Amino acid sequence: MIDNIVRKKTIKVNILLVLFLGALFIFGHNSNTVIYSNILTLILFLYLIYRWMKQKLTINKYSLLFIPFVMMLILGVLYSPESSYSIVILTSLISCLILFFLIINTFDNKLSPSIYLSSISVSGFLLSLYVLNYYGFNGLFTAIQSGERLGYEISQPNTIGYYLSISSLVTVAIIYDHWNKLSKLLLLIITFALVINIIIIISTYSRSSVLILLIGFLIYLIMQKNFLKAIIFSLLTFSIILLMTIYNNFNLDRFTDTFFLFDDSLVSASDQVRQNLIARGIELFSSNPIIGHGTGAFRYIYSEGILRLVASHNNYIELLVNHGIIGFSLYYFPILVILLANIKIYFKEKSNNTAIILVLVFVDIIVSGISSYTYYRVLSYYILAIAIINIIVYYKEKK
């Protein structure tokens, strides 16, 4: 995986991908800085279009998987209770699908998907450095001690935690796969990046991010051929983090609440709101289960008579309410196809790339969808594009 970062033929693409993802991670969710992310996105799009034109505008069938879904959202705009917000969602989705389409149709056939995976790891480290520069180590450990969530000044704690949890999983795969191949200095730098990522995740007190990291790590561990090596590696990694957090009096209250959602005395206000959103979402879905209430409809219907618009914070509920069973199926069926194809590849070749790709698709789409939207999230489509590239590369090599 590391080898592809420094190849002369790939360095230009990799720099652009890192700049794009790094800007997305750091600036993309702050209204004051989002312009930087948008500029780099435009540059990447223009470069990928240029590469696509050089490749005679060939189109891979996998890049069209989500066309039926976007058509459903366009239809949903027509009967949505509020058209302006629905158009914002549609525009965001189309932007994601343009990136998805261009990455699949412009990648170099001689490259493995590792260059795209590496860009996620490097971009996560850039975000960590940005956070560290903003708050300092004292700020991180103060947040851990006090239980106050870190990240509101930059973006949102859950957003920072999400990006770093995905990045950390890729970094774990890089370290594990190259443990005996890297120089001691480079191994030290990458391990340091992983430790900083996890400390920042803890300081955000993002429960969904911790679950993404733990579930993803567990699945990756189970998928390894050398299970003993994987266990030793995992124990060493998390022992360092545990010792550092214990030393700083890690406040566990917010995380322990996660595991007691069925005990009313221990359910936080945030948990109660989310439970109410799910219950109301099921009611709304039942009233129009086939095509739903229209693009972006949930928060307007739910918030009727309320000044603050409330989001569902759940991809499953959002799709079922807004687009019914049809829209839900049009989104998740292509993902199922991508997952099954990569599972088949994994059982045939047991490669590290395929293992971490499966982990990323599962935790990013299936797990994080419980507490956030994935159907118009840029990184989610970037990960799906990598998963498709893995399929294409595998079958091209078999010919």
From TrEMBL:
It comes from the Bacteria. One of its GO terms (molecular function) is ligase activity. The keyword Oxidoreductase does not apply. Keywords: Ligase, Membrane, Transmembrane, Transmembrane helix. It is found in: Membrane. Residues 192-331 form the O-antigen ligase-related domain. Signal peptide: none annotated. It is a multi-pass membrane protein. The chain crosses the membrane at residues 12-28, 34-50, 62-79, 85-104, 116-137, 160-178, 185-202, 208-223, 230-250, 324-343, 355-373, 379-395. The keyword Transmembrane applies. This is O-antigen ligase family protein. It comes from Bacillus daqingensis.
